[in-house]
Amino acid sequence: MKIVVLGGGESGFGAAYLAKKKGMEVFLSDKGVIKDEYRSLLNEAGIEYEEGNHDEAKILAADWIVKSPGVPKKAEIITKIHQKGIRLSSEIEFASEFTDAKIVAITGSNGKTTTTSLIYHILKNDDLKVGLAGNIGKSFAKQVADENFDYYVLEVSSFQLDDIQNFRPHISLLLNLSQDHLDQYNYNYEEYALAKFRIAENQENDNFFIYNKDDEMSMKLLEKLEIRAKMIPFSTKLKLREGGFVNGEEIEVKLSDDFMMKIDELSLVGNHNVANSLAASIAGKILNISNESIRNSLMTFQAVEHRLENVAEIDGVKFINDSKATNVNACYYALESMKQPTVWIVGGVDKGNDYTEIEDLVKRKVKAIVCLGIDNQKIIDFFKDKKETIYSTSSMEEAIKVSKSLAKSGDTVLLSPCCASFDLFKNYEDRGEQFKKEVLK
Hints:
The chain is α/β, with parallel strands linked by helices and about 450 residues long.
């Protein structure tokens, strides 16, 4: 079988490596430049590849094409693949066909990385043989090739779900929906939301689908979608007969037996993290992990880097790195959890953002806005009548200097950009690292 892999990063190399190990004929093609570490891994594994080009004849001669999430679905080569009717899969689809491990797959607009890491922590803490992959950690395909795990916990994006045919997790989890990546979905929120729901489309009645009863779009779509898996809800607003909910000062999960825990014992703070902890607890209960073990995991879990990460307190000013907030809804959660007057650093590549969702929070919680991006005009235009103090900056060094001059003892400087990072940074991690470096400087 001829396999072509598009994209030579973590997931692309992993898929090519797995295909090679399974005795397939493999060719990897990357239109950009392949990083040195992956180039040397490809050479070491004896995988044929090209970079800076897509050899169409070679690509279109494939039996099966594996597309990395970074390759735009509107790219010309993708259109030609569809026209030829060649099977096109994401790495998670490809790798899942070569493992019998139970898969727990997590998607949603916000909280994916935190909840995925938390479920992995719960399983690992219970001494299960478990791998962490998808949009996080090491390539899923590479782990399937080299490891012998009984479970995988996968963070899954809509881009990965766009390219599935048979992907069937044992447990799927849809945390929430908000308007994100609309530029890739014809600026149609429902089209994007339906892409997320694909996580459950191949599940059968011996599988589980965990969903958020507080999420408006999820509930609207569930009325017209047919989900065959056993559906288990969670809510921070409603008491439920079955599922996870908040009961006074506690979280409670009602399934075959009950799990309860005080909210102030959770290691993660903020209402959104109560929801994430409920979802993770339900997954733990489905997998028969003891209450004691789940409680211990929820108390000992360390928050994810670049997600409401406390960097330092300098001269009474707290600096918080929330670089992973690449959409308005993620920033909403960050602003909601601010207890002190906040200097807010925002900006980058706008993905069709609507700032009305956070307008009220900005009025109440933010004392000054520091825009950070090549083009800050949309943010300035939206907030200029709502906030007196707005600055425009075009480097992290400048943004931190301006923020420091605006913040007094007792204030917080929050980097929560609402936007993608590609105008000034390699990715959100690079943006977060530069924030931390400049703060500590």
